[in-house]
């Protein structure tokens, strides 16, 4: 399931506590509605890993609920050379299991 978010990343790209902070633009996730506050973090393994699937995952949270994401990116990249992720913009999150 794809959901749209409006928001921006807070923190430096090298900061493990870096967080995307925004609002839900479109929904369908259980217990959520348009305009609800959301956060996305990248949760990674604390030690060095060998396989790509072990590197970590993006997690979307809204209130007490959390969902793993298979994809998280800006929805409209009009200029692929720019990476101003600290400015509020539209993002697409693809939720792995939206039923929980």
From TrEMBL:
Protein name: Uncharacterized protein
Organism: Deinococcus sonorensis
